[in-house]
UniProtKB/TrEMBL annotation:
Source superkingdom: Bacteria
Pfam family, one: GrpB
Identification of the protein by name: GrpB family protein
Gene3D superfamilies hit by this protein: Beta Polymerase, domain 2 (3.30.460.10)
Species of origin: Marinobacter lipolyticus SM19
Amino acid sequence: MDEEESLNRAIYEEVVIIPYDKGWPLLFEEERDRLLHLFPGSFLAIEHIGSTAVPGLSAKPVIDILAGVDAMPRADALIEPLCQAKYTTSMEFNASLVGRRWLMRWAEGRRTHHLHLVVYGSQEWQQRLAFRDKLRTNAEIAAQYEQNKRVWAAEFRSDREGYTAAKGDFIRGALSSST
């Protein structure tokens, strides 16, 4: 499979939830270290977020990375160099985002990493970390989220945007609850 075919497969791959893999934190650490080496001084912090950052939680096997920058113009300036460093993105999709930029890394026809560039300390930064931490510390919410993700993955198997949108209400509710 050539690179273009691999990318197209990754873009259109189905949503699949698999059991937790103890190797996910190491995959995050390797990519974080690679980014810090390639772009010294560009990131104020890099965090592992999403379901792969929650021990024991089933997830899509894609490592979600939150990279904090000092301002959105820095994020925009990093897009082309990141694309030269094995990421890809949709400029059209990024133009629709407020307060963040999104990139994807892939290999062998499947997504391996999602990179979310946001302003360090911003509301977007705080909310993503708060949700990860809520899942790490509240087993009941984590179990509900996992159960719902399986339902959404079946319902939106070929619609990643639909799957992501379906998670939104749950995430907002979990962040507003005091449990």
